[in-house]
Amino acid sequence: PGIYTKLLEVDKVDLVIAPYSTNVTAPVMPLAKQRDLLLMGNFALDANARLRHDKYFNNQPWSSARDAAAPFLALCHELGARSIAVLPADAEFAQNIAGGIRKGLKEAGLQAVYDQNYPPNTVDFSSMLRAIRATGPDVVFVASYPSESAAIVRAVNEIGVGDSVKLFGGGMVGLQYSTLMESLGSMLNGVVNYNVWVPEKTMDFPGIRDFLIRYQAKAKDANVDPLGFYLPPFEYPIGQMLAQAVTETKSLEHKVLAKYIREHEMKTIVGGIRYGPTGEWSNPRIVYAQFQGIADKDLEQFRRAGKQIIVAPDAYRTGELKPFDRARN
After folding, report:
1. Are residues 96 and 139 in the same domain?
2. pLDDT digits 0-9 by tens, 41-58
3. Domain check: are 183 and 316 in the same one?
4. Rg of the Cα trace of the chain?
5. Close Cβ partners of 137 (under 8 Å, ≥ 6 residues apart)
6. Tens of pLDDT along 264-279?
7. Domains in the chain: how many in total?
8. How far apart are CA 219 and CA 227, in angstroms?
């Protein structure tokens, strides 16, 4: 909050954008509400669920933890799963999305046979995976952060999770990043994970390809993610939405801009966006994609369709969901 106080009181900025992610956006929310600020959210899950600030607009393609979990639970049903292991980090985003899974278990006909939080920045998951394997779950849902996600994938490759597991993955942050995808390579095969944009035909929104061409041309010199599929296509629309609101209202007054954003469809490179009462997307569009046919040490393969197959929701599906073991062989 101190940084935002400086931006407002010393630098006298007109508009503010929240920092990336749930964990660091949450402390800014009380300041935004207290000062009645227009705040553009930035991949913060359920950050406004309790405060209900009416000038907050979050740019991420899901609206709540339940919405984020729903497509994954639908995949559990598709595979005839009856039991699940839940392994989340003890941190805000991971707990939120794991909470969405937990709340949907009864309706999905699933029994949690393992549900254990782990401390952030854990590096050794072998004992947890052995404990999960001993329970024989049909599904393993993981909610982790980049270094943990990589460690878990490597541990699964080394010791396995058992033949009973039909579906593995879910809420693993980092598996969308170019560096991790390239370094993990074939170890990713079979993993089903949330994503926001992949190069599949159902996500070919007007303007997105042109944006990525421009981004990728600059990415190497800027030493940033060379593909830029995960965050850049959603960071750019924050600017698009602010520009649209300012241009159409001819105002920088936060009340006026918030009213415009609330009442109009915002046109962006990730499609049209409308907002609901808590400042989340009215029509969530989180997708779950399965890594299939991934080779080692080949970043270029991820530029092509057919490597991250969208398996949920049905409106964006581009291929068959394969049981975990079959997709790995």
Report:
1. yes
2. 999 989 999 999 999 999
3. yes
4. 20
5. 83, 84, 85, 113, 114, 162, 164, 165
6. 999 999 999 999 999 9
7. 2
8. 8
